[in-house]
Amino acid sequence: MSGPLINKFVVVGIGLIGGSLATGLKQRGACREVIGISRTPQSCADAISHGVVDRAYTSLREVASELGKGDIIFIAVPTLAVTAVLKEIQEVIDPAVTLTDGASVKGSVQKAAESVFGKVPAQFILGHPIAGSEKSGVTAANPNLYEHHRVILTPLENSSPEHLQQVTAMWQAVGAEVLSMSVEEHDQVLGATSHLPHVIAYSLVDTLAQDIGNPNIFRYAAGGFRDFTRIASSDPVMWHDIMRANKAAILASMDLFIDNLSRLRASIEHEDSEQLLRVFSRAKEARDDFTQMLAQRAVHKRLN
Amino acid sequence: MSGPLINKFVVVGIGLIGGSLATGLKQRGACREVIGISRTPQSCADAISHGVVDRAYTSLREVASELGKGDIIFIAVPTLAVTAVLKEIQEVIDPAVTLTDGASVKGSVQKAAESVFGKVPAQFILGHPIAGSEKSGVTAANPNLYEHHRVILTPLENSSPEHLQQVTAMWQAVGAEVLSMSVEEHDQVLGATSHLPHVIAYSLVDTLAQDIGNPNIFRYAAGGFRDFTRIASSDPVMWHDIMRANKAAILASMDLFIDNLSRLRASIEHEDSEQLLRVFSRAKEARDDFTQMLAQRAVHKRLN
């Protein structure tokens, strides 16, 4: 072996997602050096004092001249801030540097790259780690966050195989399983399995807090309610950005859900026992199959 | 002390709720004997072999003559089966025996008792333990299920203070905190904090399984989705019964939720950032306050 997988790993935006990948690569010796970029000097200082990065700067320009082949820039800023980062990259970063990102919506990143570069550059491999937490910020950074988690890459026709291989190896180095699909399928799948549940959780908590008209309502809620609404404690700004960035897919899945729920409402109103039992039973079956699949996947990982 | 709190504890319906209370009282020495009643002989045999009850019968009639003051009958059958049990009680059980139940909806039990007895008898204290699991059946019975959980009793004007005191002491003996409220408030509160989330979880899983049109959709869902939909693995028959029994309150809270979600949908469609951030932020705040209250309650319990 000729040394670590990655030479310099540069993380732009040192929050939970970026900080966890940085400290994960560092602890596993998968990169020679970790450089953090954050607009606020306090975040830079925090990232250094928490041992998440080796050096930190408030602008990518300060390290641009030292980056080349074998280095990776990971864009981990809120979705709607990606365009500004890409503009800076377009101006100062060498096309030999590998670029990737962790944004929850891929269509909006593709559009941002097209608006800045004309087309998505071959060096830029769009990606999304399916991991997270309702916690946020560099203090929540966890070197094992991605272990046994999936990362979806959405390479394009002109993506460079070398850069794709480098990004794949980077995620595998922190224990993630790497999958590939189209930008469109990614945004539809995540719209339904992640973005829709978040909107529902926010709306349910808001309904109880604002609309029910019983100020004691939460006093009698139990642990099941806490688990069900955990994702409503997620960062509002991040989720606002996702709603804007994946608007079409989210609206489409919200419409399907509101239709389904309205049909269920009619079955309750008309005391249609047969239909209620049919829906509850097939939902339970689908959900039990899903958890069995997750369990088998975990066993498979322990055996391999 | 003159011996255990309860003489004979009779549990009608030996599933998770009834079995857990039976084995909890037994293990704590809070009753002299536990008798199980189940219509199916196999359930009787299972309850005995799992050590959940001392004796078991397929009909309450077989033990009626031996029950009197100091004994408790706990009705733990599915909500819509309560009427049949009450009819048997009305025919063969002494008015000195304490009666209580664990059904999730109290208005329907009150109506059932009124239809059988004319009015709810003074010996019958309606109750509901706010505890459960997506598992069910006697094999899931857990003697510590109710520890640190709340039990809501809904006594009526003519309820007997002695029977109320006996039921309160019974729940405290297994570590539960006993609260009191009206039947109407109970059903509204539970409709919003428990029944509504269950309908939503069933409907969300069903939307993904039936309506999205992507057979691989669950392959890419993550642990967050598993936690969010855990309650969709609950027993379909039990939840069908609850939908029937608490129909009015559930429909009312579904309407409030569908309205709230539809307003959120409009904010997403019109990219109303201010409104999205306002809703997400106040939902996060309400949910964070709620979990802080649960945490303080847990600390308070450890200190006392």
UniProtKB/TrEMBL annotation, chains A, B:
Residues 7-298 form the Prephenate/arogenate dehydrogenase domain. It is an enzyme of class 1 (oxidoreductase). GO terms for biological process: tyrosine biosynthetic process. Its EC number is 1.3.1.12. Pathway: Amino-acid biosynthesis; L-tyrosine biosynthesis; (4-hydroxyphenyl)pyruvate from prephenate (NAD(+) route): step 1/1. It comes from the Bacteria. Keywords: Amino-acid biosynthesis, Aromatic amino acid biosynthesis, NAD, Oxidoreductase, Tyrosine biosynthesis. It catalyses: prephenate + NAD(+) = 3-(4-hydroxyphenyl)pyruvate + CO2 + NADH. One of its GO terms (molecular function) is prephenate dehydrogenase (NAD+) activity. Pfam families: PDH_C (PF20463), PDH_N (PF02153). Belongs to the prephenate/arogenate dehydrogenase family. PANTHER family: PREPHENATE DEHYDROGENASE, PREPHENATE DEHYDROGENASE [NADP(+)]. This is prephenate dehydrogenase. It comes from Cellvibrio japonicus (strain Ueda107). The lineage of its organism: Bacteria, Pseudomonadati, Pseudomonadota, Gammaproteobacteria, Cellvibrionales.
